[in-house]
Specification:
Elements (H helix, E strand, L loop, with lengths): L2 H17 L20 E3 H13 L3 H8 L12 H11 L17 E2 L2 E2 L7 H4 L17 H17 L4 E4 H7 L17 H6 L3 E2 L13 H13 L1 E2 L2 E2 H5 L3
Antiparallel strand pairs: 1-4, 2-3, 4-5, 6-7
The structure holds iron/sulfur cluster (2 copies).
The site of one iron/sulfur cluster (SF4) has 11 residues, from loops.
């Protein structure tokens, strides 16, 4: 990933954190029922994680963690595929299979070991009441819609790159030249097996927002799109200008 994409990603994370500070969530340190293997990411987020692992010299630990991956499935659609199908034809989209709900391997003693670079799906997971295993988190509907919109923007940022389960994307990225150290740390076919479970990130077809949510969500979208990275706004960079 280019540094530009990494900087944009970081700006998007910051804008969302500022916007979501209005909510009173029950989430606390060492509360981690939500930390399962059912997390999807775009490769741009995976490369930020790999960068941290290289910089902290934790490749051996990381390779061991990747191999704790449970059964995963190949998603039928990305978030933007789903949005495109709903917006284009208004068609009913069949639900995805539920992903693997066993504990995320990066969780140790109820703390995330890659916390500073955790992907957006982890950042937006929150609840107004403390979660109990098997019971859905409690969040306002417009918070869910806003989170989905941000996922769509991040997917657009990484369009054409890997999209799928966190552990599959991270494993597939072990093929990059800067991550070659993993070649001797992972079983030979492990990277290939993960790669076939992935799809490609798609451009943004439009947002899935209801009109009555716009008052709350528009400020978030404006904050993201008008943020500057270098000389340009995120909006102009994402539009290729
Ligand atoms: S989403 Fe639920 S499990 Fe996760 S930190 Fe918040 S309250 Fe805890
Ligand atoms: S990456 Fe970190 S925050 Fe995300 S599910 Fe795993 S342990 Fe939890």
């Amino acid at each position: 990933m280019s540094c530009l994409k990494e900087d944009i990603l970081q700006s998007i994370y910051e804008a969302f954190a500022e916007w979501s500070a209005r909510f009173l969530f029950a989430c606390e340190k060492e509360c981690a029922v939500c930390c399962t293997q059912n997390v999807t990411i775009t490769a741009v987020e995976g490369e930020a994680i790999h960068r941290l692992i290289r910089e902290t010299g934790r490749e051996v630990w990381f390779a061991r963690k990747l191999q704790e991956k449970g059964e995963t499935f190949r998603p039928r659609m990305t978030t933007n595929d789903f949005a495109g199908a709903c917006l284009g034809k208004g068609e009913d989209v069949p639900p995805e299979e539920v992903g693997n709900l066993s504990a995320c391997p990066f969780l140790e003693k109820d703390c995330c070991q890659i916390y500073e670079v955790r992907p957006f799906s982890c950042r937006c997971f929150a609840s107004e009441q403390r979660c109990i295993s098997g019971i859905s988190a409690l969040v306002p509907e417009y918070y869910l819609s806003a989170s989905t919109a941000v996922l769509q923007i991040i997917e657009h940022l990484g369009q054409g790159e890997y999209w799928g389960n966190l552990l599959n994307v991270l494993t597939a990225l072990c093929d990059l030249p800067e991550n070659k150290r993993y070649a001797s740390l992972l079983p030979a076919s492990f990277v290939d097996q993960s790669r076939v479970q992935l799809v490609k990130a798609q451009p943004l077809p439009g947002f899935l927002l209801f009109e009555d949510e716009m008052e709350q969500i528009a400020p978030l979208l404006t904050a993201i799109f008008t943020r500057k990275v270098g000389e340009k706004t995120i909006e102009s960079i994402l539009n290729g200008r």
